[in-house]
Specification:
The structure is a homodimer. Chain A is α/β, with parallel strands linked by helices. Chain A has twelve helices and 14 strands. Helix content of chain A is 35%, strand content 21%.
């Protein structure tokens, strides 16, 4: 069995975590920022130290290739992303890239032979915080996003992705997209939910990702004076919207056990203490592993919006702004990971992910699965994000063993 | 009976409405803006044309004084305000000032004798949109607000009231406050609600103003990822806040017939479509003519906040940021106005106001009442604000007659 070097793994993690570290031990390393440049430079240097062939494509995805013993074999793709949310955590993305790096280092230490080439990748702009959309690098690479279009997307200051890539020196020459067929792909990530911790497990083998839909609703009422306007005459956009917020919460109890429903954005105009709200814009996020349930949820939300607005006598616009079916990862890769977890002796379970990942896009291109390690209290996308180091190590052990098996698979 | 000149009254209204007129026939004339300067210049010039003694105090209140036949009699104070809400209407405030101006012109036309001096006033910054607080000029004049403190209040650009007064040349020399005892005061204003229109009446004699309380609530939840966070683990600040919005609406049906309740401001953080809201700040406005009911409402809102937050497992801070008891206007002045309305033959009713007015502060200083004219659809504080001209005229007729009676009262 290949063994990782736990001290090196942890020291590398700490070193990478210094770049963009926040006062509260989080990470502020937005895609294509100066901090992103710095961490990319370190990553490239670490790949070169391993003697890997490094290449950078036109969207800034960074690849390192370790050749296998069979020059004609299809490669295995491993890695994740190094960008962070604004004032996010140190584990989201970074732990996956560094587990892949530790895998190649462990192979190098022990001269582990692998028939297939192994490619390690750092995907550009997974988070989508500075530049929309999220999963940009993997989406462009797999052809799910239009490269020329996303290069022109601008941040809040009007800087485009292409310009930001130029500024940090990571607009590579390589064409974006696979040069050959891949055999398989594996991504390690923090769970971002509480299930593994609740069950006292170290590793989750992720067999799929929820389907989801996003709705945007704008409610149009009348902005009257909060004093002299009797209740019967009011058309209060916030009263109607609040009814929908409550209904969306209750819809999580409908249709299936795994349903999650969220209103994340809600803006009130004119937003004055003594004026009845005339316009409220809000979003609805509904998810389930069952695409039919997502469809049922969307219809149910539409009915709730209609009912709440009719009750209050207000008008509304409703738009479904995004819908993505559930992802079923490769049973072959997942079974390989489950067997590797058994072999390593790591406590584990099979599970599905409520959040999208680069692996979702990569799965469209080649057989893919993921490993999850626990997130303490399920916290993510903030500075308190944390994974017990013993769990991170256990995840890396399963990762290395799984990659070894994939890289030697027939 | 004194008669107004309807054509002059309307022409004057149209002329004043040109200053700060919006494309949608509303009025954008913020306190102490360039437009406010222009309309003040016109007002001063109109007062001088009537031969009035004009004076301007240190907070920019503009007074014009028509002496009476008895030099020792206490004067009657009439007027309202010429500033507007941002993109507000033409009637709010302005109609009251111009009804007072038309009153003095009508007296002048016919050489109507009045025993008491009559003072016309344009109060500075009634709206409170650019500079907080509202009712600034009347509040400082009556000693309810601290003059030196409000002079230092700044707008969003950091310009203080004192600087803005200097810029438009309306930081007068006169001390702020009454130079002598007043006999009484009368203000005409648009109703800003639908009651007069609903009952087909032209004039309301306002006998008082609602008491009210303002609460600010901040709910503290946890910003977790909308996908992988199971429903049971969520602490969603918006779900709790929305429950309170619904409860606040339902509380309008409690305690008394006249209760109105409003959530006007509500802000969500971090405000991302796939992140559970971690913090929601919102305001609650509760009003009734009965101060005990306002107290009951505040307690009921506090209980609802506590219950909703406990249900969701979130924390909160709640602050009562303002409470003002109801105002009872002078029965003597109101009865004079009712008798005048009968004499004029105007359709009318006695009523109370849900909104605060300069007259509320003035009532602390001298016997005061108000006249309301109808607001079409109850609309106010927006460009669609409208009063049928026949009603505006009828209101002015009752106003002139009431002022005549007050100015000759023993």
């Amino acid at each position: 069995m290949v063994t990782i070097d736990p001290e090196r793994f942890r020291e590398t993690f700490e070193r990478y975590s210094e770049i963009g570290r926040t006062d509260a031990d989080g990470l502020h390393r937005l895609a294509l920022s100066e901090e992103d440049r710095e961490v990319r430079d370190l990553f490239v240097s670490d790949l070169e130290d391993l003697g890997l062939e490094v290449r950078i494509d036109r969207i800034g995805n960074v690849f390192g290739r370790a050749e296998g013993t069979d020059p004609d074999a299809e490669p295995v793709l491993i890695g994740s992303h190094l960008d962070s949310q604004p004032y996010g955590g140190r584990f989201d993305g970074q732990l996956g890239v560094l587990s892949a790096l530790e895998t190649l280092r462990a192979f190098d230490d022990e001269g582990v032979e692998h028939r297939r080439p192994i490619e390690i990748v750092n995907w550009t702009n997974e988070e989508g915080s500075r530049f929309k959309p999220a999963l940009m690098g993997s989406g462009a690479f797999t052809g799910e996003l239009d490269l020329e279009e996303v290069l022109e997307h601008a941040d809040a200051d009007g800087v485009t992705v292409a310009e930001a890539l130029d500024r940090i020196g990571y607009r590579g020459d390589d064409p974006v997209g696979p040069r050959e067929e891949y055999h398989s792909s594996l991504e390690l990530h923090v769970e971002q939910g509480p299930k593994l911790e609740d069950e006292g497990l170290s590793v989750g083998v992720v067999e799929g990702v929820f389907g989801m839909a996003w709705l945007e609703v704008v409610v149009h009422g009348d902005a009257d004076h909060a004093g002299p306007s009797p209740m019967y005459s009011r058309k209060d956009a916030l009263v109607a919207a609040s009814d929908v917020v409550g209904a969306v919460r209750r819809l999580s109890n409908r249709f299936a056990d795994d349903v999650v429903t969220t209103v994340g954005e809600l803006e009130v105009a004119p937003g004055s203490i003594n004026v009845i709200p005339s316009e409220v814009r809000f979003t609805v996020d509904v998810r389930s592993y069952d695409d039919a349930v997502v469809g049922d949820l969307v219809e149910a939300v539409e009915r709730e919006v209609e009912t709440a607005c009719e009750r209050e006598g207000v008008e509304y616009d409703l738009e479904e702004i995004w819908r993505i079916p559930h992802t079923e990862f490769s049973p072959t890769v997942a079974e390989t990971a489950l067997a590797a977890a058994d072999a390593v002796g790591a406590s584990h379970r099979a599970m599905v992910s409520g959040a999208g990942h680069d692996a979702s896009y990569v799965n469209e291109m080649t057989d893919t699965a993921m490993l999850f390690v626990p997130s303490v209290d399920g916290k993510t996308h903030n500075e308190a994000e944390f994974t017990e180091w013993a769990d991170a190590e256990e995840g890396a052990r399963v990762y290395v063993e799984t990659v070894k098996r994939l890289a030697n698979a027939k």
